[in-house]
From TrEMBL:
Record-given protein name: Acyl carrier protein
Entry keyword annotation includes Phosphoprotein: yes
Source lineage: Bacteria, Bacillati, Actinomycetota, Actinomycetes, Kitasatosporales
Organism in which the protein naturally occurs: Streptomyces marokkonensis
PANTHER family: FATTY ACID SYNTHASE, NONRIBOSOMAL PEPTIDE SYNTHETASE
SMART domains the record matches: PKS_PP (SM00823)
Amino acid sequence: MTENAATATRTADLLVEIFRDVLALPDLTEDTDFYEAGGDSLTAFQITGRLEEILGAEVPVSLVFAYPTPRDLAEVVDADYGRA
């Protein structure tokens, strides 16, 4: 596994935990779609708020809507903000 792939995996794991907590779905996986899991604008703001605490940078809520799985969002977070 390359370093970039390993970092994305760790970020995806972090996002899975955030999604699980915010959406109250303990079985959620890194490929679970935010919308299909019952996500809405309030939960999207909760997800980005948690990311902002970890990253120390503003994360647009639109990213959750544009990249609705933890795996997809992790790739963008790593590319735009570095390791979460």
